């Protein structure tokens, strides 16, 4: 029953600790930072009645050292320490899938969908060629249907994730439309 972490993601985790203090008997000093970087430590004051806290805006794939120091005016409590490693950064799109192909349309979908992505751009055009078209898709969607395509044509589709941080990441896939019906 000591200081420990749950709900670990690539940028946050929740700290839980035993209720040592009350609202009246003091507060906690919480120190945390990347392991081996004392200059990068942050300190928070936490009310004595609290026994959990979420730390966010952390770096992915990083081990954090956390120290919880009960500041009690009643009695001495030793500091509690733990180490927590955030998950590696998830990247999107990690895969692009083509489905529901017809002569003039197909569906493009991608995964994973991450909170850190603001929008997706879908760039598509026939191969070979330089007549690509661009479609913007909201960041919480993971698929779109491309229409008004040419039958029996190979398309290059590039999905670009635009992260809220401004970074971008792209992944491409090829897709073929079906042969059109005779007489169309």
What report would you give on this structure?
Helices cover 0% and strands 50% of the residues. A hairpin with a 6-residue loop joins strand 10 and strand 11 (133-138). It folds into two domains: 4-85, Immunoglobulin-like; 96-177, Immunoglobulins (Immunoglobulin-like, Sandwich), CATH 2.60.40. It is mostly beta strands and 184 residues long. The protein has no helices and 14 strands. The strands form four sheets. It has a four-stranded antiparallel beta sheet, with no helix packed on it. A four-stranded antiparallel beta sheet has the order 11-10-13-14, with no helix packed on it. The radius of gyration is 25 Å and the shape is rod-shaped.
* Span of the ends, CA to CA: 73 Å
Morphology: rod-shaped
> Structural class of the secondary elements?
mainly beta
- Determine and state the CATH class of the largest domain: Mainly Beta
Average pLDDT, all residues: 92
Number of helices: 0
Query: What is the correct CATH architecture of the largest domain?
Result: Sandwich
Quaternary status of these chains?
Answer: single chain
CATH-assigned fold name of the largest domain: Immunoglobulin-like
Largest sheet: 4 strands, antiparallel
In CATH terms, the superfamily of the largest domain is Immunoglobulins
Q: Provide the helix percentage.
A: under 10%
The total beta strand count reads: 14
Task: Give the low-pLDDT segments.
Answer: none
Q: β content, as a range?
A: over 45%
The total domain count is 2
Q: From N to C, what is the helix and strand string?
A: EEEEEEEEEEEEEE
